[in-house]
Amino acid sequence: MSTQPAQPGTIFSPTLAARFDRLVTLYPVKRSALVPMLLYAQDEIGYVSDAVIAEVAARIGITELDVRNVVSYYSLLRTKPAGKYHVQVCTNISCMLRGGNEILDHCKKKLGIPNKGVTPDGVFSLEEVECIGACSWGPAAQVNYAFHENLTPESMDQVLADYRAKAQNGGGK
Amino acid sequence: MADVTFTVDGKKLTAPAGTLLIEACRAHGIEIPAFCYYPGLSLQAACRMCVVRIEKVPKLQTACTTPVAEGMVVTTESPEIAQARKATIELLLGNHPLDCPVCDAGGECELQDMTFKYGAHESKFADIKNHRDEQQWSPVVFFDRPRCILCYRCVRVCGEGMDVWALGIQNRGSGSVIAPNQQDHLDCEECGMCIDICPVGALTSGAYRYKTRPWEMSHVGTVCTHCADGCKTTLGVRRASDGMEIVRGDNRDKSGINGDFLCIKGRYAFDFANRDDRLTKPLLRQPNGEFKPVPWDEAIEFAGKRLREIRDSRGGSSIGVIGSNRTTNEEAYLLQKFARTVLGTNNIDHHRTADYPAFAAALAGISDASLRDFASAKAVLLLGNDPTEQHPGLAWQLRTGVRLRGLHLYVANHQNIKLRRQAAAFLQIREGDYAPLIAYLAGNDSALDGNGEAKAFREAIRAEESLLIVFGAEFRGRDIEALVQFGSSLPSVKFACLGDYANSRGAADMGLYPDLLPGYIPITASAQFAQEYGPSLPSQPGLDLLQMFDAARRGELAALYIVGSNPVARYNLDPAALRNTFIIAQDLFLTETARLADVVFPAANLYEKSGTVTNTFGDLQLVRKAADRAGARTDFELIVRLAAAMGANVKQLVPFEHRGVRADMGQARGAQSGEADRHGVWLAAHHLEPKLSPFDPFAILDEMQRLIPAYNVPRLDLLVGNDQHSRSGPASGLVQIQTAAARRDLVLPSSDTLFTSGTLGRYSSTLSSVLESREPAETAAD
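Structure tokens for the assembled complex are given below, as produced in the milestone run.
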């Protein structure tokens, strides 16, 4: 993507700010841009912070309360920081039948955090999620946007080890 | 729209096409229960209580979202429907506390009523209730989450109705919860509409909660004592050790001009009446300068004697009288009659909040607009003022009109007032540009220089078929004249002038002016009044309020009688100026003015008396006695007693015997009132008609109606509580009113906000607590 000029008064990167400028023009009503904006903002900031809510509300011309109403409705929008790698373990029926709960329990033990917890070093966070659409390859987990399927406790260990190594090497998401 | 015919429960009904089934049924006396449906708000269809069976439709349908159709056959009550509603209630009660005996809404809760009706007394839910502690969101609003049934009424009335949007819904499913806009508290107009509209006890008010049970109160519909909109407020009163205490204000019965709307002042700011620091004993200043409580007889006799001495030795022109913006019409009328006939002076004035005489003169017989006219108006031009703050009832009417009827609202203001959000066109002008604006609208293109939007604004206004022009105190004297002149050039125009207090208009109509008699009759044309008042009427215009204080400073004002007014604070007067003036003050509290008085009479407020008041639109309404405070007396009684103590002929002052032909027969008195009611009982016991009292305001209303043609409205309509629009100005075209330019401009707008109400507002704990809770935020914003 081409580099965008920095925008004054925004908490977002110039690229994202420019993207938002365009996003609000795409729909018959500005409000329709709300959910995509929140998702993009969460990807960049890591979670939907008060500052995100304030700026998004201002960009769309609705109240912060309106934004909070929507944020609280969707479970995939977070209002607290997650780890660098957000581990989402599915426990819906297909995954559950093939050991999704065991994978979740294993992750809790391995990472030493409860559901929705964040490791002290901020590398991992863990969340039990509803169906992520990988039913044919359960049990499955999603780490940020990458899928890991047909998991066993052992393969889950490997997945976590790989991400930890990536984090130590200063790797990206 | 064309009518359609349909069948409900075997009855053939007719309603205009497009009517919602629930409304059509209610209009014919068939009640369909509903929690989320509320007339005038958007549809929610959240509660599923209004389900009905419609023939040929496979499932039960919600009557609140179904428009009636030709030939539709509907069943509203059947075992199947009862079962569906019962199941809905069972789900609602799943986590709802079943502690009705201690719930604030117990006894007037729609969920309780429905449970009673459909009998969902058993529950399949065995889980422990998910308790949450109550939250206080503002000094006014408390929220008890488990009681909430998520009907969304509060969210909608706050957003759509009030245009505040302070409430939202967060989370989803069974975790859904009503949320305030500042996460843990509310930043809003504190109108209490959300509490009023809540069908259960989830939202409760700091003013009323846990103070009483609904069935322990008597309810008296009267008129709010604060701003000049004249909203009906139904006061819930209860016996207290020292009289009748007000515990609640609302307008659930939707009577009056305001429907169910009330702002914070009408709903909660009655609390000044219950304060402990209210005056309840007459105070007499002692030689050592201190006040001493004395018996009534002593105080009245002393005051009467001194006034008489002063009148006889120094003449009536050495006495001044200041009236109130909050007393009834009868009291204001009586006060000026007392001043002119007993004291023999025209030195009478009041705190003027709008230039009503200029308005009356400019109209010259054209009728002004009733607040009711706003409910059907097609277009409104609002010039100056900020109704959201100063006339919340009018603002509600305007918002509702725009939202539900497509009213065209045109706003011209020097500030970005909130109502611009509803405006079809908003024209921002400079503060001094109201007069040029009228010149511009009237066709003078050069009057408003450099305002690019003015042209479109003018064209839009001129294209309207009918227009209601409402203006604030920015317009006075000649500007009002010019405005009315411009308006009269348009096809169909009505005008309204915005003043500030409950009876500011009445005070003006009743002639609390040094140069005008009731009905804006110049003092120099008093022939008609001389007939009733006797020939001793002083014929020279008296001193206005500021002149009175100048006279006092010069030592020429020997006495000053101040009724329900606080000019010392309002006009920032030097107390030293009044050092040599004998002052009688009548008030609820020891105000800055009362503190300077020689005699202080504790007075009743508007909720503790009967009579009539006139809102700023000229709508005349009955005031009913609701509360009572031992020790306080009505201004009416005090004026009469003072006159008697001066040796005046009371029958001449209040024609209660020979001409009091249309007495109120007790209707105007509160059912539980103290003095007036005992009086009525005594009269009845002695086989006397209850119109023989010199304290009967209706004897004065009789005289008012004889002398002020504008007030000659049907008495019966007034007595049953309907507002009656008085025709503005001197109805007899023969009387020549002074031109506006010749009068001195003494209008001092009070610039009250939603949370202030002159001196009286300072004594309302609710208003003070709201102001206090806002202070830190406002400092931060600065």
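Chain A has seven helices and four strands. Chain A has a mean pLDDT of 91. Further analysis is deferred to the final report.
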